[in-house]
UniProtKB/TrEMBL annotation:
Ranges in coiled-coil conformation: none
Annotated protein name in UniProt: NAD(P)H-binding
SUPFAM superfamilies xrefs: NAD(P)-binding Rossmann-fold domains
């Protein structure tokens, strides 16, 4: 999006699925650069070219005052994007994401092994903790942003993990 040409058609929708882990980047500052600053920068560029509807992958438990640095970055990102006043703004807040990755994470491999045993207990308020396939999150974001009725302009929604796992 750094070389947008004025003659190109303006997309109505935008999707952002950027994120990293502390282990991948090595410092809290580097994590914040990706999970907060880079996401906000991409959203601003989308707003400049005319995107009206935006869907973003965030995280279950995100909050700008969270004691967890990761969840605080996600919460600050959500607040910044809400302030941009997209006509439709959707935050997907999945539990642990499953799917193909360039590098395998040992915690995810362990989770896949024990998931069949713990899944029956992830009901009610614990349903948001159930891991979800990244493809399912993407499909739910597209469906919600494009197909569902929204009550008006400048509206935002949150898709929690249990909803993403149903989609």
């Amino acid at each position: 999006m750094t070389h947008w040409q004025p003659q190109w058609p303006v997309p109505l929708q935008g999707y952002i699925a950027l994120g990293t882990t502390l282990k991948q980047v090595g410092s809290k500052q580097a994590l914040e650069e990706v999970d907060f600053h880079l996401v906000v920068k991409v959203a601003r560029m989308m707003a400049v070219v005319g995107v009206k509807h935006l869907a973003v992958v965030s995280s279950m438990g995100s909050h700008p005052w969270s004691p967890s640095h990761y969840l605080r970055c996600k919460g600050k990102m959500e607040r910044s994007l809400t302030d941009m006043r997209f006509e439709r703004l959707l935050f997907a807040r999945p539990g642990p994401l499953l799917g193909e990755r360039e590098t395998l994470r040992t915690d995810e491999q362990a989770l896949k092994r024990i998931l069949p045993f713990i899944s029956p207990f992830l009901a009610g308020p614990l349903a948001d903790f159930e891991p979800v396939e990244a493809v399912r999150v993407a499909k739910s974001m597209i469906k919600t942003l494009t197909e569902e009725k929204w009550p008006g302009r400048f509206d935002f929604r949150i898709l929690p993990g249990k909803v993403l796992n149903q989609g």
